[in-house]
Amino acid sequence: MSLKTKLLVLISFLTIGFLNAQTVNTDFVYKKYTWDPSPKLHVLTDKEKEGNYVILKDKVIVEFAYESSGQLVEYSTRHTIIHFNNEKGIEEMNKIYVSYSRILEEMDLKGRTITSEGKVIPLSKSSVKKVDNVENKGPFLIFAMEGIDKGGEIEYVYTNKKSSSTNASWTMQDDVIHKDVSIDVYSPKNLIFEGKGYNGFSDFATDTTLAEKNHISSSVASMDALTEEKYSAYDANKMRFDYQLTYNTSRSKSRLYSWEYCGNDLYTALFSFEKAETKAMDKLISKQGLNSMKTDEEKLRALEIYVKTSINLTEDAVSIDKMLDAKYGNDFAMQRLYIGVAKALNIPVEAVLTTDRMNRKFDSNFASWNNLQEYLLYYPSIDKYLSSSNYSSRLGFPPPELTNNKGLFVKETGLGDIKTGVSKIKSIAAPVYTLSYNNLTESVVFNSETFTPTINIKQEYMGYPAYYIQPAVYYMEASQKTELMDGLSKFIGKECVVKSSKYSGADKADILVNPFVVESVVETPQLIENAGNKYLFKVGDLIGPQEELYQDKARQSDGEIPYAHSFTRNIEIKIPDGYKIKNPETINIDKKYTADGKVLSSFVSSYTMEGNVLKIKVYEDYEAIVYPKANYEEFRNVINASADFNKVVLILEKI
């Protein structure tokens, strides 16, 4: 059982704890909800006509109710109207997908097409199909609407009875305009839910007019399309809402859910061990010689090397002793192994739950299970994080999307044999930019007869730039390594002719500890061009292709990059005898991003001449991870400076 699954089981136990003998309320809201019996086409604004289609209504109703058995169930209703502006929109939305996850019973489904001429075509039940697994995302109900044309609309309403989930998160925004977006959550009188809107979604209001049930709601009249932009956390920036069960007044007046409560559950799941597990961990510590190592970091690195080179990650739920014996286990077992070994070695350790910040930011002000999605371990004695089940990651370099975020930290405390868990919300600091780099050293000479450049190249990858390369090399076959070296050696262009290549820094002890180094000798005929008595040398291509950031529309979101990093490129070019460089000043570029008087990002290229050798230094860094859109143009200038360097062409002319 994975850690996530185990916590979900704890949630289900929590839910069962809410079930009391209740009077079943049959006054369901969904039974009263209906659509307009005489639909008419909507009139669109000029802006709404620009997209392929527009969502004119997106209403969600979630209603919790008790069965006669006392079981809590959920009735989920959704009402959607879509207007089509062109054939592409019809192609994109001609099929509707309804998730069948947790569905106990399909209560109602109806749909209709309103053609551009106003003709109403009801949904044919024969077009409705259930597919057990769609793209590995689980079961879905799929139906296609008939008679859709340009200028027409489709409308559908469905209600499904589902097993209850006392927390949820709905993302409502995408790259098309949405209008009349709303959410209503109804629950029995004893169950109180709270909700929160994000990224501009309205705050929830509490309805005090109902005597027999609770009701919270929120709505947005119009929601602009959010375009996916480079260097942004697109999914995290979308409008969404969350809701969470917070009180069960029939059992207690105290708040049902808190970070402390969650921390206690996590502590119980992770920090206690059976005798067989403790014995197996003691044996591992002895066999790997962890006790004899001097520092906490040395011990943890040795443990991580063993786990990530000896134990396969699976979905199978096993105890620690079984995992160490069979050499396979799931993320939950691995998480517990690292904690158990740390405890045995008296290394302070904290379990961390957080979110992928590129999908959603951790919200410390709204205690909800929705924030608890990803798991890390934190070792305060060395101030480093570890991901137990991510095989690309190593101690000190957790998955980058989990850093620069907040999280729930849980540690063990106590006196003597009495132990308990302590929870606290803290920030997960990202590794500083100097620890992640891709450095480049190049030496260029020209063939005396053909003028073809030959380049000796040394590439150094360290930290996150090595994250997806260095760990993988250890597991590669010889042919795969050859293919990788060829690809990395041709970063200047596919036309390069690789004369030789080799690598170092790929031993298991090197991974994200020492740089991964690739050394190559390549010929680059594509970089030189004859122009009469002159040669044009595309020196800018020596740093490899760089991305140019265009901005023809106003920036919608803050700039955000996966991790802080830097590049240092040192290039030496031996000028052929009888030639000089006419325009070396074109090398000089200086762009910086400054906030509060501090340079947080920069691109600087410069040169010096020493005899017949031109020495170029190109330095680029991104110390910050988030760049507010108010100053985005300055950030864009730094990004584009590297693309500008790509365009630099040196003119070599005869003396």
- What does the overall shape look like? globular
Percent range for helical residues?
10-25%
Largest sheet: 8 strands, mixed
- Whole-number mean pLDDT: 93
The count of DSSP E runs of length 2 or more, i.e. the number of strands, is 35
What Rg, in angstroms, do the CA atoms define?
30 Å
Biggest sheet strand line-up: 5-4-8-2-1-10-13-12
Number of helices: 11
Class inferred from helices and paired strands: alpha+beta
Low-confidence stretches: 5-23
Through-space gap between termini: 75 Å
Range of strand content:
35-45%
Would you write up a description of this structure?
Helices cover 18% and strands 38% of the residues. The protein has eleven helices and 35 strands. The strands form eight sheets. It has an eight-stranded mixed β-sheet. It has an eight-stranded mixed β-sheet with strand order 24-25-23-22-29-33-32-31, covered by helices on one side. A five-stranded antiparallel β-sheet has the order 19-18-17-20-21, with helices on one face. Helix 5 crosses helix 7 and helix 5 (275-287) crosses helix 8 (331-344). The radius of gyration is 30 Å and the shape is globular. The N and C termini lie far apart (75 Å).
Quick structural gist:
The chain has 11 helices and 35 strands. The protein is an alpha+beta fold and 655 residues long.
